[in-house]
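[step 3/7] inverse_fold.run input=structure_tokens len=382
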């Protein structure tokens, strides 16, 4: 029976025997008491009929406080064991080699040029033989994703293998980054990322031979790039998911190698290899030589910087004539790389064109030499 009906009948029923007329306040209190009683019974009965509420899994776990050392250690150890287990689930090098062997063995002719292909039937056969770790890759969804315009309904074996390699790499990187997630909240602080990259350097073939003196510089450059682009609000932390989603982990190795080449070329301008590197940068028209246009293009920037620093700009014609006089090229209108190397003036020429401080030093070389001589004379007299 509905609790509202029970309440209505209870209030309407006459009491046995002589009754004292109740005040309006007493009636309201009695009504509230009865309402509370029957509503509680109704609510309790309803709760018992909804047992599915008890099956909702727990989704919130309080993080240990700073003074709860034991709980913190337990949490860290649990995460480490979990990540180790996940790492063991990934394909190792031997298993990847075996997968490639199976794919190559089950390729479906004809080949497209030198590209080996495989149809869906053989694709499933390889999946059965490759082992349980590979099961996730041999699905209709993956095959359809890699299926493009092949008239036989096949996919490229190389594309599929690269897909598997990419997935394995992403999971390996996710696990590696998570090991440095001290807070265990899915993000890295600046110090966490610095430690990760510092320990990663020796394992990267692309950076093989990089001197240890460059390590700290490389780490600083890499970390700042991540935080500059992935932490625009400057919170001091970035999500591991965002690190994996961006291309910085791939690109940074080549960005950084190019930067090192540039630094090494600037610091060793007298060396032929350095001159060759800088010459390619100066040859903006890719003609294989420097002409008046190329020289003027770069020297204009030097002139602008001189104005900014309150110096009187030097005439380009004077600089151009001086450069050609120093190099003495075979062609009086063109300067080749070999002309620069043969002249033994390549470092001076490149300095004039790209380095304001270097140009100022060259332009004032006679005054600087005279000043040095005066200082030497004064020292001798004393």
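[step 3/7] decode complete -> sequence:
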């Amino acid at each position: 029976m509905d609790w509202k009906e029970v309440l209505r009948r209870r209030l309407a029923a006459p009491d046995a025997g002589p009754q004292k007329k109740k005040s309006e306040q007493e009636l309201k209190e009695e009504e509230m008491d009865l309402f509370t009683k029957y509503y509680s019974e109704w609510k309790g009965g309803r709760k018992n009929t909804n047992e599915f509420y008890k099956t909702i899994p727990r989704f919130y776990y309080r993080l240990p406080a700073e003074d709860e050392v034991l709980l913190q250690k337990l949490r860290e150890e649990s995460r480490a064991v979990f990540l180790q287990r996940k790492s063991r689930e990934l394909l190792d090098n031997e298993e990847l080699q075996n997968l490639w062997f199976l794919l190559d063995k089950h390729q479906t002719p004809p080949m497209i040029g030198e590209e080996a292909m495989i149809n869906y039937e053989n694709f499933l056969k390889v999946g059965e033989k490759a082992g349980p770790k590979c099961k996730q890759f041999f699905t209709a969804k993956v095959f359809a994703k890699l299926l493009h315009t092949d008239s036989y309904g096949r996919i490229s074996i190389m594309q599929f293998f690269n897909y598997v390699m990419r997935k394995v790499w992403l999971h390996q990187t996710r696990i590696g980054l998570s090991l440095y997630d001290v807070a265990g909240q899915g993000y890295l602080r600046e110090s966490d990322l610095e430690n990760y990259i510092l320990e990663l350097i020796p394992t990267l073939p692309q950076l093989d031979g990089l001197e240890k003196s460059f390590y700290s510089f490389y780490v600083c450059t890499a970390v700042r790039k991540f935080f500059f682009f992935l932490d625009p609000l400057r919170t001091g932390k970035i999500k591991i998911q965002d690190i994996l989603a961006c291309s910085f982990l791939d690109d940074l190795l080549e960005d950084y190698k190019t930067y090192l080449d540039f630094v090494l070329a600037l610091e060793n301008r007298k060396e032929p290899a350095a001159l060759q590197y800088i010459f390619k940068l100066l040859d903006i028209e890719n003609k294989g030589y420097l002409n008046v246009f190329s020289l003027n293009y770069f020297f204009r920037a030097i002139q602008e910087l001189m104005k900014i620093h309150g110096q009187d700009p030097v005439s380009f014609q004077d600089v151009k004539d001086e450069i050609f006089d120093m190099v003495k090229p075979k062609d009086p209108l063109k300067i080749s790389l070999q002309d620069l190397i043969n002249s033994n003036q390549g470092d001076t020429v490149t300095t004039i064109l790209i380095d304001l401080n270097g140009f100022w030093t060259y332009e004032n070389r006679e005054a600087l030499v005279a000043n040095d001589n005066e200082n030497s004379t004064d020292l001798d007299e004393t």
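[step 4/7] annotate
The radius of gyration is 39 Å.
The chain has a mean pLDDT of 83.
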